[in-house]
Amino acid sequence: MQTLVAYVENKPGVLNRVASLARRLAINIDSLTVGPTENEEIARMTIVAHTDERGAHRLEASLEKLVDVLLAENISDRALLERDLALIKVAADQQNRPHLMELIKVFRARVVDVAPESLIIEVSGTVDKIDGLLEVLRPFGVLEMARTGRISMTRGSDLLQPPVPQPESSALEPTSSGVK
């Protein structure tokens, strides 16, 4: 697995172009999360790709060539903080509910919905933590699950700073020589 971060212009069609690029390179995306940054004009993508270092390098170089991509970088070899979020609906009757509550507590998850025959559990953490919780919940009956995909950030003062997007110039604006 390789983790890449791309800062992109926050506008329609960018996600499709990034996903299409990975498809053209025959790279399988394990997870792709997108969200706004502190600058509303820029979105941050975390791409976890099922590829080797060479494939990640090809993807990074190709991403940099896309017009809407401001910065793309493979951060797999850096010290990272990674998190995933999951909502898990599990079968829970009156008999097994106390045991489930203990398991949920051990994984530092929380119950966000209670129904007569089920619970919805919210858990965030590393991929291994969520996979571990899923394993212990399977015998009770996992009814439904939704996961966000991994988000990653480099640790410490290691920053990725995208350039600020420049406003699009209009064909009607005069050039520096005053000629259109």
How are the elements arranged and paired?
Layout: E1 2-9, H1 14-24, E2 28-36, E3 42-50, H2 53-65, E4 69-74, E5 80-91, H3 97-106, E6 110-115, E7 118-125, H4 127-137, E8 142-147, E9 151-154
Antiparallel strand pairs: 1-3, 1-4, 2-3, 5-7, 5-8, 5-9, 6-7
What structural keywords apply?
180 residues; alpha+beta; Alpha-Beta Plaits; 4-stranded antiparallel sheet; 4 helices; 25% helix
Q: In short, what is this structure?
A:
The protein has helices spanning 14-24, 53-65, 97-106, 127-137, and strands at residues 2-9, 28-36, 42-50, 69-74, 80-91, 110-115, 118-125, 142-147, 151-154. The protein is of the alpha+beta class and 180 residues long.
Structure in words:
The chain is α+β, with helices and mostly antiparallel strands and 180 residues long. The protein has 2 domains: 2-77, ACT domain (Alpha-Beta Plaits), CATH 3.30.70; 81-151, 2-Layer Sandwich (Alpha-Beta Plaits). The chain has 4 helices and 9 strands. It has helices spanning 14-24, 53-65, 97-106, 127-137; strands at 2-9, 28-36, 42-50, 69-74, 80-91, 110-115, 118-125, 142-147, 151-154. The strands form 2 sheets. Strands 5, 6, 7, 8 and 9 form a 5-stranded antiparallel beta sheet that branches. It has a 4-stranded antiparallel beta sheet with strand order 2-3-1-4, covered by helices on one side. Strand 2 and strand 3 form a beta hairpin.
